[in-house]
Write a structure and sequence with these properties.
- This protein is mostly helical and 270 residues long.
- The protein contains 12 helices and no strands.
- Bound molecules: heme C.
- The site of heme C (HEC) has 28 residues, from α5, α6, α7 and α8.
- The site of heme C has 28 residues, from α5, α6, α7 and α8.
């Protein structure tokens, strides 16, 4: 059942993604908060904004790969050493993207404590292996495929996921904040308040976004490390499961996708 949903969605998603490249010029219109602008218009208008990297298509050779190394204490301990040696300078001890070497980077280092909870093993493994030199990333993220073995890359993924879940405390090496769920929730509330104030969303849209987002987070936590694919894939799969479980209505699901797109393009969402 789950597989069918995933496959159906992925097929649809490939279509949406292929519409992205040519739709750049329509971004401004699509960003308008018209009720009739539709999901297609919004998704095809994605491209700018801080979340652009999460809309990237995972290359075939990585798509669907999952971590062959169990996230046991030994793997997490190996990952901690790899992380402290190679990643903390940019991503910070707690993985929230505030390492000393990342301060002047544009784009700045990602909050991987957070995104490792949202993104699939395949996305993470791809990004760690190939880094950020290519489009659409154009970033200082290093291609670790030439430096770390495959096993080391999976160990560090196990570690970052454990760090983001709060299962392990950060190693103290370069400093930086720890992912704090309350702080994240506060940031989201502030972001939604800004969006309403700036006319990006109506109050009703903001409220729906908050409710559905909380359901998604809860579902993600249940899924543990079985996450797969980019943030978009995950979002769609989970939304359809929430609808079929009767947790949210189809209407709420659609409104969520729409508001997500609007927030994305407004540049308000991290
Ligand atoms: C020189 C600084 C630097 C170092 C060192 C570095 N990164 Fe990154 N990393 C970045 C930047 C900048 C980004 C954001 C831009 C991008 O996605 O390419 C990023 C993005 C990522 C992403 C994508 C996250 C997302 O939300 O899309 C992952 C995963 C990641 N890094 C993991 C690692 C791991 C694991 C290590 C150590 C093995 C590491 N990084 C070391 C700079 C760095």
């Amino acid at each position: 059942m789950k597989k069918t949903v995933l496959f159906t969605f992925l097929a649809g998603f490939a279509l949406l993604i292929s519409a992205c490249g040519s739709a750049e010029a329509e971004t401004a219109e699509a960003a308008g908060n018209d009720d009739d602008s539709g999901i297609m218009g919004i998704v095809s208008g994605m491209g700018g904004g801080m979340m652009a990297r999460h809309h990237a298509t995972i290359p075939d050779e990585f798509s669907g790969v999952s971590n062959p190394i169990a996230a046991d204490d030994a793997s997490i301990a190996r990952g901690a050493v790899i992380y402290t040696t190679n990643c903390a300078t940019c991503h910070g001890d707690g993985g929230v993207g505030d390492g000393p070497a990342g301060v002047n980077l544009d784009p700045s280092p990602a909050n991987i404590a957070h995104s490792s909870q949202q993104l699939g093993d395949d996305y993470l493994f791809w990004r760690i292996t190939e880094g950020g030199a290519e489009e659409p990333f154009n970033s200082a993220m290093i291609a670790w495929g030439n430096i770390l073995s495959e096993d080391q890359r999976w160990d560090v993924i196990n570690y970052v996921q454990a760090l983001g879940r709060g299962d392990v405390a950060p190693t103290e090496s370069v400093g930086g904040e720890t992912l704090d769920p309350e702080l994240e929730a506060q940031k989201q509330a502030d972001m939604l308040a800004d969006a309403v104030e700036q006319g990006v969303l109506t109050q009703e849209e903001a409220d729906t976004f908050a409710v559905v987002h909380a359901d998604i987070d809860e579902h993600m936590a249940d899924m543990g490390d079985h996450a797969m694919g980019s943030a978009d894939d995950m979002m769609e799969v989970i939304l359809s499961l929430l609808v079929s479980d009767g947790k949210i209505t189809q209407e709420q699901s659609e409104l969520f996708v729409k508001t997500h797109g609007l927030l994305d393009m407004s540049g308000l969402m991290e």
